[in-house]
Amino acid sequence: MALLSVLQYPDPKLRNKALPVTVFDDKLRQIVDDMFETMYEQNGVGLASIQVDIPQRILAIDVSDSRKEPLCVINPEIIHREGIQYEHEGCISFPGVYEKVERAAKLRLHAMDLHGKSFEIDAEGLLAVCIQHEMDHLDGVLFIDHLSRLKQERMRKKLEKIRRQTF
Ligand code: K1U
Ligand code: ZN
């Protein structure tokens, strides 16, 4: 396994769109293993392949308290949405900043596993937020895009301040 380098905002590669996975082989298994290792190391609840510069439709997710319930999601599609939730989100590509984002409260997800087998799950709460946040990444959409211009500008300034203090 290997730790992958996570792209940081405003890297233009975060705006790339991912293509569907068509080959389910050892190389894909290696990518997924590396994504989980990277997500756990960053204390994230999710990671999208675009964040590690792999433009294929792959998500690593684990919203469990034990951090031992990995969910590998390939070629995801939301087939049903219901209600609204408005919760704080973070992003490994924007370290140190958090904002509330409006998302569907519940959803039904159709996806494939590591072997190319289709499955469906119902999600709500943090899992539903995480799936929507990560699926946005696959289309080059970032959580900042859901905010007002004013909040976007505030977030950019806060990020600059954090980076000045870090380096
Ligand atoms: O895509 C990413 O950068 C991962 C991101 C996803 C996320 C989804 C839903 C809510 C918040 C964040 C993270 O995991 S950032 C880590 C984080 O903020 C967090 C950690 C534990 C619980 C909730 C959020
Ligand atoms: Zn993110």
Shape: globular
Structural class: alpha+beta
Number of helices: 3
Identify low-pLDDT runs.
none
Number of E-state strands: 7
How would you describe this protein?
The chain is of the alpha+beta class. The protein has one domain (12-166): Peptide deformylase (Peptide Deformylase, Alpha-Beta Complex). 29% of the residues lie in helices and 26% in strands. It has 3 helices and 7 strands. It has helices at 26-41, 125-138, 149-166; strands at residues 46-48, 58-61, 71-82, 85-89, 99-103, 106-112, 118-124. The strands form 2 sheets. Strands 1-2-3-6-7 form a 5-stranded antiparallel β-sheet. A two-stranded antiparallel ribbon has the order 4-5. A hairpin with a 5-residue loop joins β6 and β7 (118-124). The chain is globular, with a radius of gyration of 16 Å. It starts with 25 loop residues before the first helix and ends with a helix. The mean pLDDT is 97. Bound molecules: ligand K1U and zinc ion. Residues 44-48, 89-93, 129-130, 133-134, 137 line the site of ligand K1U.
